[in-house]
Amino acid sequence: MPGNEQGAAMDVTFPDDPPMYDGAQLVVRFMAAVDGVPLACAVTLEALEDHFGAQPPLEADILRAYETGKGRIREVCTRALEANGGAAVVLRSGLFRIESA
């Protein structure tokens, strides 16, 4: 990834684009950017249920859980992006358990 030589810190940001629920994949999709390059990332419905109180099947409740947990979701996403070299990620429930240990 340009500007990401080994050992260089990544600049991870999150645009204000609204999240979107993808009922076919059971994820909430959101945008991140690594060193200015946009990436589509996602958090699973299971993670939102387990860690942020999502109550499916209502999309509004699922998106509300995302908004409630947005700060933590972004923290975990940043760590995952740094760990995988800046490739798009899908955040699963187990990752939140590992990150809180």
Please work out how many helical segments DSSP would assign. Answer: 3
- The secondary-structure element order is EEEEHHEH
| Share of helical residues | 40-55%
Write down the overall mean pLDDT.
92
How would you summarize the topology of this molecule?
Elements: E1 12-13, E2 20-22, E3 27-34, E4 37-44, H1 45-52, H2 59-83, E5 90-91, H3 93-100
Parallel strand pairs: 4-5
Antiparallel strand pairs: 1-3, 2-3, 3-4
Explain how this protein is built.
With 101 residues, the protein is α+β, with helices and mostly antiparallel strands. The protein contains 3 helices and 5 strands. It has helices at residues 45-52, 59-83, 93-100, and strands at 12-13, 20-22, 27-34, 37-44, 90-91. β2 and β3 form a beta hairpin.
How do you describe this structure in short?
41% of the residues lie in helices and 23% in strands. By secondary structure, the chain is of the alpha+beta class. Mean pLDDT is 92; it is low at 1-5.
What are the main properties of this structure?
single chain, about 100 residues, Double Stranded RNA Binding Domain, five-stranded mixed beta sheet, about 40% helix, globular, disordered N terminus, Shew3726-like_sf, DUF1488
